[in-house]
Automatic annotation (TrEMBL):
It comes from the Bacteria. GO terms for cellular component: bacterial microcompartment. This is BMC domain protein. InterPro entries: BMC_dom, CcmK-like_sf, EutS/PduU/CutR. Keywords: Bacterial microcompartment. It comes from Lentilactobacillus kisonensis F0435. It holds the Pfam family BMC. Residues 1-68 form the Bacterial microcompartment domain. It is found in: Bacterial microcompartment.
Length: 68
C-alpha cells in the first residue's frame, strides 16, 4: 500500500496523541511534518508508538532515533 506524506502525518498525529500525553503543535500536510509537544519522556513514547505502528501496518523501515 502506498500513502502520501499528508496521510502519514495525520496517521502519526493520531497515534501520537492516543498513545501518550502529548499535543500536536503543527501538521504540515504538504511535507508530512508533525510537531509533537509534551514532556520529553512522553514525546519519546509517542514517537516510539508511531514508528512501531507504521512499521507493523505499512512495513515502514524503523530509523534509529537519537537526541542530537
Amino acid at each position: 500500500m502506498t500513502i502520501t506524506p499528508s496521510e502519514a502525518s495525520i496517521i502519526a498525529g493520531d497515534i501520537a496523541t492516543k498513545s501518550s500525553n502529548v499535543t500536536l503543535g503543527f501538521i504540515d500536510r504538504f511535507s508530512g511534518s508533525v510537531v509533537i509537544i509534551g514532556e520529553v519522556s512522553e514525546v519519546e513514547s509517542a514517537l516510539k508508538a508511531v514508528v512501531e505502528k507504521l512499521h507493523d501496518l505499512l512495513d515502514f523501515d524503523i530509523p534509529k532515533i537519537t537526541r542530537t
